[in-house]
Write a structure and sequence with these properties.
With 209 residues, the protein is of the alpha/beta class. It has one domain: 3-Layer(aba) Sandwich (Rossmann fold). Helix content is 32%, strand content 26%. The protein has six helices and nine strands. The strands form three sheets. Strands 6-3-7-8-9 form a five-stranded parallel beta sheet, with helices on both faces. It is globular. The two termini are 13 Å apart.
Length: 209
Amino acid sequence: MAVPVRAAFGLVGAGVLFTAHLVSKANHFKNKSVLIVGPVETGVDSLTRILKRDDIPLRIPRFGKWMVTDTLLGELALVVTPPESHKLGGSIESIRLHAHQVDLICLVVPEEALESTERNTDAERLAKLVGELAGKSTKCALIISCERGKPQDDRHRSSRMQSAKRLRHLLDATIVHSCDLHDQQTWGITAGAILSVFQPAKDPNGETK
C-alpha cells in the first residue's frame, strides 16, 4: 500500500507502508550503496554524516505517523559515497564514476536554491546527468534541505514547487523529502524516508514479493 513519505512544497513522494517487524529484519536495506551529490553548500556533508552514523534508530511512516523501530542505521552497513570534492565539478565527476552502479542516488538541494536561477541551474544540471547515467535498477531521491521554523515567503512558493517538480522529473525520483539536516530529532525520519525506496513491493494479496 503506497503512502506519502513527506510532502515538499505540495509534492508528495510515494513511499511504502511497512511494519516494524519487517524493518527489524532489514535484509532488504542492508549493504546498499548510496551516492550523495548536490550543488555547492547544499547539505551534502550533513546527509553523508547522518547516513554514516551508527546510533540512529530508523523511523518509518505508519498510519500517518512516524514510528520508531528497533533497527539502528549502523546495522545496515550502508556504503555511502560523497562527492569527489565540495565543488560542483566534484558532484559531476562522482555521478560519472558511480551513477551506473550504485543502488541509490540522493540529490540534495537547499530550499532557497529553488528560487535562485543560478543555483537551480546547477541542480538541474546534476539532475539531468543523473537521469542520463543512472543504472537501470538505481533508485533516486530528491532531498530538499530547509531550516525548520524559518519564516516562509509565500511569494516564492509557486516557483519552488515548479522547480522541485522539474528536478523530480529529471531525476525520475522515487521520493521527494523535505528536511532540516541540522535537526537531530529528524535524522531517523530522514534516513527512513530515503531507505523506504528499497522496501519490497507487495502483490495484490498483500504479500511481500
